[in-house]
Amino acid sequence: MRVLIPHEKIQARIAEMGNEIAADYGDAPIYLVGILKGACIFLSDLARAIPKPVRIDFMGISSYGKGTTSSGEVRLTKDLDVSLEGMDILLVEDIVDTGVTLTYLTHVLDQRKPRSIQIASLLDKPSRRLRPIEARYVGFTIPDEFVVGFGLDYAEDYRNLKDICVLET
Ligand code: IMP
Ligand code: MG
Question: Which CATH architecture has domain 8-144?
Answer without folding.
Answer: 3-Layer(aba) Sandwich (3.40)
